[in-house]
Amino acid sequence: MVMTQLTNLSPRESKTVSPLTLITLDLDETVWPSESVLKKAEEIQFKWLQQRAPRLTASHDLDSLRAHRRLIREQYAEIAYDLTAVRTTSLRLLLKESDDSPDLAEEAIGVFLEARNWVTPYADVPPVLEKLARTYRLASLTNGNADVQCTPLKAHFHFSLTPCIAGAAKPAPDMFQQALEQAGVEPHQAVHIGDHPECDVIAAQQVGMRAVWINRREAPWPADLPPPEVIIKDFHELERWLFQQIKI
Ligand SMILES: [Mg+2]
Question: Rounded to two decimals, what is the model's pTM?
Answer without folding.
Answer: 0.88
